[in-house]
Specification:
alpha/beta, 12-stranded mixed sheet, 25 strands, 36% helix, 24% strand
Length: 728
């Protein structure tokens, strides 16, 4: 660095060349020290070409401005940056590690404060295996290490034992700077680790007593951070002497006014009141059936215990509050606010009942010591032992030890997503799951408006599975999944509406064939190739009630081939859109007559050819069976005296856009004309004349050979000769 006088002389020469005379005059007015400071700062930052050249104190000022995601990215660049980032505390509005109500471990989410929205999620982990679980706990440990956390929530409801494996990792981040702590469904060991490592200054602690007497309230009272806490909230408390023991701590330590205990009670409130009054019988200021007030060693403070009931419908939950109040506070001035009870559990009849707080139990098999002589003396001991073993299996062992017959009973109660998860755990579980049928309300495979594939499986109205297909691999996954649904499912409604790549669908027919027969009640197929449609016809199990096809207004629709399948002509309802086969009703009627089909069996069609042709063909075929006819209908007798077949032509719409439909059904022979079913609800969504269809029978035509290059060239030459003059 040059001497100060040289730096000043060089700068003065530069200033004389400035065009802005005001700036030059301002510089000349500066004191010598200020001039030198500015010159050195300018020279220093001029030499700092990038972040690495900045001094640590400047870097720290920059890091203070970064939000939490920015700090995380910076600390991953180098060890020095990591040390700098970790040296600065960051305020979190909330840090939550929670179970998302699925059967796998949930999410860890963090919300920095005060920068940004309080509800904005910056970091999210979804835990599916042990490796990611470990990452989440390490991430929580990092947040505890560098954070000042306003609200920390640990709501672990899936694998609290696994959480205990990482307690040593968390202890390295001690002490934990937390204002408000909420812990539920963790094991006792983990909760105690948090109590030991909490830094002073905790304002609220919230725990769940789970309605059991093994809740370690006495152990919590050994931690000053617990009994010095401003607010203690405990759900489903069953420890009767808890308020009196805590009150003794408050008296011994002269706790501050407004310190309080708030609880939901799982046993009768009068037990708590009786114990409190008995413990402080020499300190009673006054008492009644719902409250008690005692004096403390400090004349300015009293302790008030109160009970109240929150009613919902016909049931009521009891709550307790024990607080330190000013000794001159009148009864009319009590805080009667009940907002704190929102979300607090009182009597947890269906909860885990102390599973978090109970000690590990011994192996139950060691509790039974049956000698052979004793067993022989008991009448019917074999049956009793069988029941004992089943009880021990169900109550004490894990899933792997359950016999297959018990597992099957459990699997019967699982919905479809749960069965899918279970079958991925082991080969035995896969075989058990696949051995049981599951009822589907609907399964549909169709092309949506975005020309991307989607497969959905639905059980009742709940969406269970969705595939969006973007490439061949996912397309294959979707078809494999459809094959699985056909294999293990009893499907009320199966819809295959392929409008994007029907040729590709044909490549997977061998995969689907392994799932035959298909247990389907109602089948709808549109825009598949003929080969695929015939494949479904061959593999449908008996019991099909409705089949819905699309004729596409072409005469190549293979109606004769469909009539070779009993599952088709024995179907209760056959629906065909845009039918152009004039003799289709008469051919089907012959099948019905031969097989003595049931009453109410019917054919419903939208017509793409003139309706009078259908009627003429029908009358011509059955001229010797006519009961009566007119311009819109014809009725014939069958070989069964109790059955007739009725053909009717229906139309609706204005004269300029008339849609014509046909229905052919088996009716009782004694049915009067006035009793005909005139409902046309089935026509909703049915196409009749398909004049504007771009497919025009593309599904039913045989594959065409590709044109030769010479034919294409000749076609373009003919086009040029005929129309080229219009483009000159």
């Amino acid at each position: 660095m040059l001497p100060d006088d040289v730096l000043l002389r060089m700068m003065e020469e530069k200033v004389r060349s400035w065009k802005n005379r005001q700036s030059a005059m301002n510089w000349m007015r500066l004191p010598r020290d200020e001039k030198l400071k500015k010159i050195k700062e300018f020279l220093y930052f001029k030499n700092c070409k990038n972040w690495c050249h900045l001094p640590p104190e400047i870097k720290l000022e920059v890091i203070k401005v970064l939000d939490f995601p920015g700090r995380l990215k910076l600390r991953m660049t180098a060890r020095n940056e990591r040390d700098l980032v970790d040296s600065l505390k960051i305020n979190f509005e909330s840090v939550t590690l929670t179970n998302d109500r699925s059967e796998r471990w949930g999410v860890i989410q963090m919300t920095p404060s005060p920068r940004g929205s309080l509800l904005e999620r910056f970091v999210s982990f979804r835990i599916f295996n042990k490796e990611l679980y470990e990452s989440a706990v390490h991430f929580l440990a990092y947040a505890l290490k560098i954070g000042k956390i306003d609200s920390l929530e640990i709501l672990e409801g899936y694998s609290p034992k696994r959480f205990n494996e990482f307690l040593k990792v968390l202890e390295k981040s001690a002490p934990f700077n937390v204002k408000n702590l909420m812990i539920k469904k963790l094991k006792k060991e983990a909760v105690m680790v948090f109590m030991k490592n909490l830094a002073p200054g905790v304002e609220t602690i919230r725990l769940d007593g789970e309605g059991c007497e093994s809740f370690p309230f006495d152990e919590f009272l050994t931690f000053p951070v617990f009994y010095n806490c401003e607010t203690i909230k405990i759900e489903s408390l069953a420890i009767v002497d808890a308020p009196s023991k805590l009150a003794k701590r408050w008296i011994d330590n002269d706790a501050e006014i407004c310190t309080k205990l708030q609880c939901g009670l799982s046993i009768r409130s009068d037990n708590y009141l009786h114990n409190f009054v008995e413990e402080f019988s020499d300190r009673i200021v006054y008492q009644n059936e719902n409250e008690a007030r005692i004096w403390t060693n400090n004349d300015s403070k009293h302790i008030l215990l109160r009970f109240f009931v929150q009613y919902e419908d016909l049931s009521g939950d009891e709550y307790l509050t024990c607080s330190i109040i000013p000794s001159d506070l009148e009864k009319s001035e009590y805080d009667l606010n009940m907002d704190w009870t929102v979300g607090m559990e009182a009597c947890d009849s269906f909860g885990p009942y102390g599973t978090s707080w109970s000690e590990p139990e011994p192996d139950p098999l060691e509790l039974f010591h049956f000698s052979k002589e004793y067993v022989e003396e008991i009448k019917g001991i074999d049956e009793k032992l069988k029941k004992i073993k089943v009880l021990l299996f169900i109550k004490r062992k894990n899933w792997c030890h359950l016999p297959p017959e018990i597992k099957l009973e459990v699997i019967k109660l699982l919905d479809f997503p749960a069965r899918l998860k279970l079958r991925m755990t082991a080969r035995n579980e896969r075989d058990l799951v696949d051995s049981l049928k599951i009822n589907f309300k609907s399964v549909s495979l169709y092309s949506n408006d975005e020309r991307k594939w989607e497969l959905r499986g639905r059980q009742i109205l709940e969406k269970l599975v969705s595939f969006r297909i973007f490439n061949r691999k996912l397309y294959s996954s979707a078809v494999h999944f459809l094959a699985y649904a056909l294999k293990i499912g009893k499907i009320d409604s199966l819809e295959i509406l392929e409008g994007y790549s029907p040729k590709r669908f044909n490549e997977f027919l061998k995969i689907l064939e392994k799932s035959a027969p298909f247990n389907v009640k109602n089948l709808k197929i549109c825009q598949l190739k003929k080969e695929a449609v015939m494949f479904f016809m061959k593999n449908l199990a008996p019991g099909l009630e409705t089949i819905h096809l699309h004729g596409e207004g072409c005469k190549s629709f293979p109606f004769d081939e469909f009539l070779t399948f009993p599952v088709f002509y024995n179907c209760e309802t056959i629906r065909i859109e845009s039918l152009a086969i004039v003799d289709a009703p008469s051919k089907l009627a012959k099948k019905w007559i031969e097989n003595d089909a049931e009453i109410s069996t019917k054919l419903q069609c939208g017509l793409s050819a003139r309706s009078d042709r259908f009627l003429e063909n029908f009358v011509e075929e059955f001229s010797d069976r006519i009961v009566y006819q007119n311009e819109n209908e014809a009725r014939i007798w069958t070989n069964n005296d109790s059955k007739h077949i009725l053909l009717r032509i229906l139309s609706w719409g204005d004269p300029f856009s008339m849609s014509v439909f046909l229905t052919c059904s088996i009716i009782p022979s004694d049915l009067e004309k006035s009793e005909y079913d005139l409902s046309m609800d089935w026509t909703v969504g049915m196409e009749a004349s398909d004049f504007f269809s771009l497919r025009n029978g593309a599904s039913w035509r045989e594959p065409e050979s590709e044109p030769l290059l010479e034919d294409i060239v000749n076609s373009f030459r003919d086009f040029e000769i005929s129309y080229g003059r219009y483009f000159l």
